[in-house]
Amino acid sequence: MGRVSKKRKEILAKFDLANPYTLADACNLVKEISTTRFDASVDICVRLGVDPRKANQMVRGTVALPHGTGKDVKVLVLCTPDKEAEAKASGADHVGLDDYIDKIKGGWTDIDVIITMPSVMGKVGALGRILGPRGLMPNPKTGTVTMDVGKAVEEVKAGKIDFKVDKYGIIHSSVGKVSFEGVKIRENAQELIMTLMKLKPSAAKGTYIKSIYLSSTMSPGIPIDAKSVVA
Fold it and tell me: Residue 72: its pLDDT value, please?
């Protein structure tokens, strides 16, 4: 452990984390300062000039990351029997209905995304207390409540993610892995930030993108000059 911290100090000594970097430089830098022995996740943190307590300033949506997140996303499809074959053919990890609803009631949540259809939302809605706090509740706005379950599974597997501003006005999202080329991390991050720009609420006043930080698992946050992204 001591060796890692010494190595980490040596790496950090080369960089000035007090001054903002361009997005392109930050995406290369985050790879260099990662000291984990596993393929760490690269995360972005964007502070927005919004008051999320006001309904007209809530920022949420979905984005298809051009290069995916690098994570194997485990998908559960809760559907009627006539949709099961479509869900399985599209790559869903788990497919069913009442049996999985019972499993979730028993505390099972070993999945990343749940996709369902409007006709069974009554049953799924009863799981709100379990799924809500874990961010697993399907929602029509994020495309996870749909009749086209096959397409929804394919999109999630290909790198479609959903995001929502937290109570502090911050969006947190994974934009890849440290094993990604710097340019791929940059293109993923840029896609997310451009999507956030399109979703700017008309009620939000002043500076919209207040700060952007990029980090990997256990690394410090690298400040990014917003102007280098939003020209």
Answer: 87
Edge-to-edge strand ranges of the sheet holding 113-116: 94-96, 75-78, 113-116
- What are 136-141's contacts with CB under 8 Å, separation 24+? 136/109, 136/111, 138/78, 138/114, 141/60, 141/61
Question: Could you tell me which of 151, 194, 189, 171 has the C-alpha nearest to residue 66?
Answer: 189
**73 Cβ contact list (under 8 Å, min separation 6):** 112, 113, 156, 157
CA atoms lying within 13 Å on the CB side of residue 42: 30
Any residues with CB less than 8 A from the CB of 212 and at least 6 apart, and which?
A: 23, 44, 45, 46, 47, 193, 223, 224, 226, 229
Q: What pTM was estimated for this model as a whole? A: 0.80
DSSP 3-state of 213: strand
Report residue 74 as tokens: 């485990």
pLDDT for the residue numbered 1? 44
- What pLDDT does residue 25 have? 94
Burial pattern 155-184, b for ≥16 Cβ within 10 A else e, equals bbbebbbbbbbeeebbbebbbbbbebebeb
The parts of the chain modelled with pLDDT lower than 70 are 1-5, 8, 231
Closest CA to 1 of 218, 178, 216: 218
